[in-house]
Design a protein that fits this description.
- This protein is α+β, with helices and mostly antiparallel strands.
- The chain is 42% helix and 17% strand.
- Helix 5 packs parallel to helix 8, helix 6 crosses helix 7 and helix 8 packs across helix 10.
């Protein structure tokens, strides 16, 4: 992927963070002519991809699941790739698992992806049409926030204990365990495990693995050596990191370090960059 052929736009404000907690957005305009073939790297967010180009891309995985156009991608989706024939535009929205569970009911999306209409409902087509009808990224961001904001009014609430467990897992960069989290919430380990999995679509242990991997992946993409990234991300050693990377994204730390998906995170997702390393 030649990122010099891609213009990236993020919402105005502090590090591009949208004014709705749990929502991050970035707009991409590819003006090159070569085909697109990019593999996603798992991250701790539900991903909504609005295809705004004239020629729809194809999203597919190793299991043979395929769809065209706009798509919602769940947590831990495995190997998911996007392929397209040329120039186009895309709006990517990343939702925290807690917010996604409240407004989209995405627990069943874990490990896979689905057409956006199946996740957002029939109103998604109008939103997609409205996004296509304007070339202003500011307006596109505003339209998307309005759409998501409308869903907040009737949202179902995730348990406070589950929300707390997710927040602490993120803040501690995956260095948490179900026993301590359960004690902090006042719930039993079994109850927290069950409610967390039911509402967010993965277990607390899987969540910790994903958050820790995401921390390591960003360190690797930012030029940190694998052994140092393993230490900073809380792995016992580099072989431990190697095993986790292979398990989650079926590649090596070097593969993650050079992954096109992460190559412009400093521009598209600056608030997610390792502290002190934003460029």
């Amino acid at each position: 992927m030649d990122w010099s052929q891609v213009d990236v736009t993020i919402p105005r404000g502090s590090l591009g963070v949208a004014p709705v907690p749990g929502v991050h957005m970035a707009g991409f305009h590819y003006h090159g002519t070569r085909p697109i073939d990019i593999t996603m790297v798992a991250h701790p967010a539900i991903t909504l991809l609005f295809d705004l180009g004239d020629q729809s891309w194809t999203v597919h995985d190793d299991a043979g699941t395929r769809t065209r156009g706009s798509v919602a991608i769940g947590l831990l989706p495995g190997t998911v790739s996007l392929t397209g024939s040329g120039a186009g535009a895309c709006l990517q929205v990343r939702l925290s698992p807690v917010l996604a569970a409240e407004i989209l009911d995405t627990a069943g999306l874990t490990g896979t992806f689905a057409e956006l209409d199946d996740v957002l409902g029939p109103k998604a087509r109008k939103l997609s049409s409205d996004l296509r009808s304007t070339t202003s990224w500011d307006e596109r961001f505003a339209l998307t926030l309005d759409f998501l904001g409308d869903r907040l009014d009737g949202r179902r609430k995730v348990d406070r204990e589950v929300e707390y467990a997710w927040q602490q897992t993120s803040l501690r960069q995956g260095r948490s365990n179900i026993h301590s989290l359960a004690a902090e919430t006042g719930w039993s380990r079994q109850r927290l495990w069950s409610r967390f999995r039911t509402q967010l679509g993965l277990s607390p242990k899987q969540a910790a693995r994903l958050v820790r991997f995401d921390h390591a992946a960003r360190l690797l993409a930012d030029g940190t050596a694998p052994a140092e990234a393993a230490a900073q991300a809380g792995y016992s050693d580099q072989p431990h990191l190697n095993r986790e990377v292979r398990s989650i994204v079926d590649t090596t730390p070097l593969g993650v370090a050079t992954a096109p998906w992460l190559a412009i995170d400093h521009a598209a997702w600056p608030s997610f960059m390792p502290q002190g390393r934003q460029r």
